[in-house]
Design brief:
The protein has 14 helices and 6 strands. With 310 residues, the protein is of the alpha/beta class. Strand 2, helix 2 and strand 3 form a beta-alpha-beta unit. Helix 3 crosses helix 4 and helix 10 crosses helix 13. The two termini are 19 Å apart.
């Protein structure tokens, strides 16, 4: 393998973003094979090796079709965050750009993509005692109590954050309680310089088609054994990695709170809502150019990509 020190203009990170089940994996593999390059996964649910069926990890054939990174590289027992992801990816890119002028990053976790492209603000480390207090408040009073507190102490951030995500609420309130300053004050949102160019494309489908694909994917997961996977992970349900769509609904089924049919329908509903939140996040980024997943020829015709397409 020939290694050449490339300039910033010769290094390109191609980001392929979009909602769950839209077809990012298939499209990304086709482009990676054409460009003879690597794929960096930016799907935080796929980091954990114990979670396969419920996170739609690429199949063995798909993983073999192009080199993939950041898939099943962690255990659910390990602590990992967006700051470490930013550092790990930038270190990997330094190595990959020695032999590959274009590298792909594919996923639906907007915060992780944003960290690599623009950096994250240096927020204080979590305070275990305060985090425990907030988790206890969530358990006793429900998510509405956290939502109300955040709206009171940091109304600006409350308008931006996913108010249905308890982990995000706890982190924001933890920062406020430990520093007396709000997230919106501490977040500078000043992009960091990167030693490579970035091109972002978004993949989307008409809503009824995307919803149909999401529902079908859930049925496929169930048929492949997702219930059994959830049973194996049941004793670990308290871990943060498992507080995610596809598992938490089945944990309720295993607890007798839901029937299996109700749990499956809830997975479909929550997956559709998750896709909507993903699209809302990505639509706020004016740098993203949007395409249908079948329009690979239009994607490859992007001026920044043309020099690399044979």
């Amino acid at each position: 393998m020939i290694m050449i020190q490339m300039t910033i203009d010769e290094r390109l990170l191609l980001v392929i973003a979009g909602p769950t089940a839209v077809g990012k994996t298939s499209l990304g593999i086709q482009i990676a094979r054409l460009l003879d390059t690597h794929i960096i996964s930016a799907d935080s649910r796929q980091f954990y090796r114990e979670m396969s069926l419920g996170t739609a990890v690429p199949s063995g054939d798909e993983l073999a079709a192009a080199p993939h990174h950041f898939i099943h590289h962690l255990s659910v027992h390990e602590s990992y965050n967006v700051s470490r992801f930013e550092s790990d990816v930038l270190s990997l890119l330094d190595r990959l750009f020695l032999s590959h002028p274009v590298v792909l990053m594919i996923g639906g976790s907007g915060m992780y993509i944003n960290a690599v492209c623009h950096g994250i603000d240096l927020l204080p480390d979590p305070d275990p005692a305060i985090r425990l207090q907030l988790k206890e408040s969530l358990r006793r009073s429900g998510i509405s109590a956290l939502q109300d507190e955040l709206k009171q102490v940091d109304p600006e951030y409350a308008k931006q954050v996913d108010l249905a995500n308890p982990a995000r609420l706890i982190r924001a309130l933890e920062i406020y309680r430990s520093t007396g300053m709000s997230c919106s004050t501490l977040r500078t949102n000043i992009p960091k310089n990167r030693p490579f160019r970035i091109v972002k494309i978004g993949i989307d489908l008409p809503r009824e088609i995307l919803n149909h694909r999401i529902n079908g994917r859930v049925d496929t997961m169930i048929a492949a054994g997702l219930v059994g996977e959830a049973e194996k992970l049941y004793t670990l349900r308290h871990l943060n990695a498992l507080n995610t769509v596809g598992y938490k609904e089945l944990f309720d089924y295993l607890d007798g709170i839901l029937t299996l049919g109700q749990a499956i329908e809830k997975i479909k509903t929550n997956s559709r809502r998750y896709a909507k939140r993903q699209l809302t996040w990505f639509r706020k980024d004016p740098a993203i150019r949007w395409f249908h997943p079948d329009n690979m020829s239009e994607i490859l015709a992007i001026p920044e990509l043309l020099p690399f397409v044979g």
